[in-house]
Specification:
The protein is mostly beta strands. The chain has one domain: Immunoglobulin-like (Sandwich), CATH 2.60.40.10. It is 0% helix and 50% strand. The chain contains no helices and eight strands. Strands 2-8-7-4-5 form a five-stranded mixed beta sheet, with no helix packed on it. Strands 1-3-6 form a three-stranded antiparallel beta sheet, with no helix packed on it. A hairpin with a 4-residue loop joins strand 7 and strand 8. It is elongated, with a radius of gyration of 16 Å. The relative contact order is 0.32. The model has no long low-confidence stretch (mean pLDDT 94).
């Protein structure tokens, strides 16, 4: 797919705190509407789905369309009640799934 995703999740939080999570996936996000130097259409290749889970439970998801910019950046909030692991997945048009994880300690 692309390079390694970049994620920002606080290392610690208080029980019940709403935290901010930021993700950036390096990806060209080719819309399928541009042409190469020979006039041939460049095939569509985008990340079409993003999912964030905490300890196996969905927290946030998004369906992405061709109009989204290259290197999609997503920012969202989540309420944390206990320590655990966030898992993030990006699915490409060709079925490739890239994942990343980040742990958080809740006091």
């Amino acid at each position: 797919m692309a390079d390694t995703p970049k994620i920002r999740v606080p290392k610690t939080a208080k029980k019940g705190e709403i935290i901010e999570i930021k993700t950036l996936m390096p990806h060209i996000m080719e819309s399928g509407q541009r042409k190469d130097k020979d006039g041939k259409i460049i095939p569509r290749k985008i990340i079409n789905k993003f999912v964030a889970e905490f300890e196996g439970k969905p927290v946030f998801s998004a369906t992405l369309e061709p109009a989204i910019a290259a290197n999609p950046y997503l920012q969202f909030n989540a309420k944390v009640e206990a320590s655990g692991t966030f898992k993030f997945s990006w699915t490409d048009d060709d079925g490739t799934v890239t994942t990343a994880e980040s742990k958080i300690e809740v006091a």
